[in-house]
Design goal:
The chain is α/β, with parallel strands linked by helices. The chain is built from 13 helices and 16 strands. A six-stranded mixed sheet has the order 3-4-6-5-7-15. Strands 8-16-9-14 form a four-stranded mixed sheet. It is globular, with a radius of gyration of 27 Å. The N and C termini lie far apart (95 Å).
């Protein structure tokens, strides 16, 4: 007997059916409570859950870009995949920015602050590799993701989507913009994006990079100039009429010898390296065309410019001695990264809090086999560590440097490769298709997402970062190493043809 509104009545006795009803009611109540809890959860927590929900599609996209392995300025498929994915999430897409067919921006939200998230997707020549712990070059392929840019572009897009959903929900205010950045490996694409003013309204820029370690901090890099010296001579029979020839290959060799002598007389931390990209076709034909491709680096861009002036004289000497014509093709110049400790501290703390990397038994088996091919393997347990790189200068270069001179910028690394794996190696390519790469990529998405939302919710940090930016930049301002009349070197990864002139 039960009492309802003062009246007594007998409840119907359907014990099994009644239990089902009670269970259904309980489920409905739980779902309502869960829904309310999800809606009331802080944006950072919800965005992290979005990253988890997107993990499968993110990994599918990363594997596809890994398979395509497209070279700089030729990443048509990779660029389309990423921009279309972002468009499906409500981002406004602008393709072909700065005169670069594969560059794009994807924007969602309105007003300030504007948080930029950088993404890359180009591969490297000579690094085609299967996802196995021994060297295996797939037939018919040359390029491979030896720097993990298939992970870079996708993780950044995942973070942009996670943050974008919070903006669309009205839980954070401002704008998030993804930058699809091609040709980081020598093509200097971001320099042209900066030159076109695409970062003029940005408050903070975030980036990351795959590695064999987890690291963050107030870190700089080397400025770099890329250049091709092309020599045009006269061909003739090397045995029957050598006096009638003027060897372009001799000019390259003399340039290289002069450069080796220059190394003794340059400042500390200077790096000079090269490849001969064209040197003739047959030993009995004196080459009338030859080309050498150089990178010159130094931590200070002004010092690098002075070194470069002396460096060009080495090529001029080679041309003078061989009576050949020198053609200088500037491929790009990028600045050293201007660090920002205010931003780096937030990223470092988020990386420490969110690092959940653990190797599966399958990872361990693969890693141990691959480490037998490494010259300096590291303990597998190091994937649980986070290194503070504040105050250091990386021995590498990146066109993120130019971005950092026009907007406060910070970045970090996550362990996507077996500890001890060097970048730009076949081992890095092999790791990039394994579960460990997926885990490192997902961690990067979480750190980018958390850092972006922290900045949206703490405008005082953005203000402090900009004050530090102005102080560090001082009166120097932004001065590109690329001549103002130079356009993007869209063909720099295409084979050089004999006697070709750009």
């Amino acid at each position: 007997m039960q009492i309802l509104n003062g009246r007594s009545f007998c409840a119907p006795r359907f014990p099994i059916r009644g239990r089902c009803v009670n269970v259904m009611l309980a489920v409905i109540v739980c779902l309502c409570l869960w829904s309310e809890t999800l809606e009331s959860a802080p944006p950072r927590k919800r965005a992290n859950e979005t990253v988890t929900a997107l993990e499968e599609i993110a990994w599918t996209n990363a594997k596809q870009i890994w398979e395509w392995a497209e070279p700089g300025y030729q990443e048509a498929n990779s660029s389309k995949l990423l921009s279309s994915w972002l468009a499906s999430e409500g981002f406004e897409i602008e393709r072909g920015v700065a005169g670069i067919p594969t560059a794009f921006t994807a924007t969602i939200g309105n007003g300030s602050p504007v948080i930029a998230i950088l993404g890359e997707f180009d591969a490297l020549p000579g690094l085609a590799q299967a996802a196995v712990p021994y060297k295996a070059t797939p037939e018919g392929k040359d390029y491979g993701h030896g720097c993990g840019h298939h992970l870079f572009g996708v993780a950044s897009a995942t973070a942009a989507i996670a943050v974008g959903r919070e903006i669309l929900n009205g839980d954070i205010e401002g704008t998030v913009r993804y930058y699809g950045c091609p040709a980081e490996e020598g093509g200097s694409a971001k320099v042209f994006l900066v030159r076109e003013g695409l970062f003029d309204d940005v408050d903070v820029a975030l980036h990351w990079h795959p590695s064999s370690i987890n690291a963050a901090g107030d870190r700089s890099s080397l400025a770099r100039i890329a250049v091709k010296f092309r020599f045009h001579g006269i061909s003739a029979h090397a045995a029957a009429a050598p006096e009638q020839a003027r060897s372009a290959l001799d000019a390259v060799e003399l340039t290289n010898i002069a450069t080796q002598m220059l190394r003794e007389h340059v400042p500390e931390q200077t790096r000079i390296h090269h490849v001969i990209t064209s040197g003739g076709s047959a030993p009995n034909v004196v080459p009338d065309f030859a080309e050498v491709y150089y990178y010159v680096r130094h931590p200070d861009a002004s010092t690098l410019s002075e070194i470069y002036e002396r460096f060009v004289k080495c090529a001029q000497a080679g041309a003078l001695a061989t009576e050949t014509e020198l053609e200088i093709v500037n491929e790009g110049g990028i600045l050293d990264i201007l660090p920002n400790n205010t931003l780096a501290e937030i990223t470092l703390e988020n990386l420490r809090q969110l690092n959940d990397l653990e190797y599966t038994s399958e990872d361990v088996k693969f890693a141990l086999k691959l480490q037998s091919t490494l010259s300096n393997p590291k303990p597998l347990a190091s994937v649980r560590e986070v290194i503070n790189r504040s105050g250091e200068t990386s021995s590498g270069s990146t066109d993120v440097g130019d971005v950092s001179w026009v907007v406060p910028t910070t970045g970090f690394n996550t362990a996507c490769w077996v500890p001890g794996t060097p970048g730009h190696s076949w081992q890095a390519v092999a790791c990039g298709r394994r579960k460990m790469a997926r885990a490192g990529m997902t961690l990067a998405s979480r750190v980018l997402t958390a850092t972006a939302i922290d900045l949206f919710e703490q405008p005082e940090v953005i203000k402090a970062a900009n004050l530090e930016f102005e102080r560090r930049r001082g009166k120097h301002g932004y001065r590109s190493l690329i001549p103002p009349d130079q356009g993007p070197p869209l063909n720099y990864r295409k084979p050089t043809t004999i006697n070709s002139r750009d």
